[in-house]
Write a structure and sequence with these properties.
There is one protein chain. By secondary structure, this protein is an alpha/beta fold. It has one domain: Leucine-rich repeat, LRR (right-handed beta-alpha superhelix) (Alpha-Beta Horseshoe), CATH 3.80.10. It has a 7-stranded parallel β-sheet with strand order 1-2-3-4-5-6-7, covered by helices on one side. Strand 1, helix 1 and strand 2 form a beta-alpha-beta unit.
């Protein structure tokens, strides 16, 4: 690919399954200008393959990617708790539940833009307060969509407490907590 497209900067991929995506990403090497990948309609991935696919994606092109953006119709991915990707500055990702956030935050400590969609209902009140969320010290733009989970003000404060320099944030949440409107 580097001989055919030596100046390629951005790449968009549409409707791939996890095998096709992994095979394609394995061909990306020595593309010195390629820093951004957009994925649209990534086919459903079984739970066992989610960490592997995300690792392959975040390490693609010899760890030179800085921006990975998945659309909201793409499959959920998950992070192996020990992985770290200092190269990732922008990330839009679909994940299953709030308990996936600590691994994600720890995996991308240099991220500046983070857009997370949590797709499953995991209504266990106080769940976020029981887990340790690493601070994202460089994050300035945070977006969270989680309409199947019923959030409390305490949980949101814990989450926002891990974002010390955030300048912009967008929340699309469900809640029964009256303190959000009082």
């Amino acid at each position: 690919m580097s001989t055919v497209f030596p100046h390629l900067e951005k790449l968009s991929l549409v409707e791939l399954d996890h095998n096709q995506l992994a095979a394609f990403l394995d061909t990306l090497h020595d593309l010195n200008h390629l820093v951004e990948i957009h994925l649209y309609h990534l086919s459903p991935i079984t739970e066992d393959y989610r960490p592997t696919i995300l690792r392959t994606l975040l390490q693609a092109n010899d760890n030179q990617l800085t921006s990975i953006l998945l659309d909201d119709l793409s499959s959920c991915l998950s992070v192996n708790g020990t992985d770290r990707y200092l190269n990732i500055l922008q990330l839009r990702i679909n994940m299953r539940r709030v308990t996936d956030l600590p691994s994600l935050f720890a995996a991308v400590p240099s991220v500046r833009y983070l857009d997370v969609i949590l797709v499953e209902d995991d209504d266990v009140p106080g769940q976020l307060g029981e887990i340790n969320v690493s601070p994202l010290l460089y994050l300035t733009d945070f977006r969270l969509k989680s309409i199947r989970r019923c959030w409390t003000l305490e949980e949101l404060l814990i989450l926002l407490g891990s974002l010390p320099i955030v300048q912009e944030f967008s929340l699309y949440l469900s809640t029964d907590d009256q303190r959000f409107v009082d």
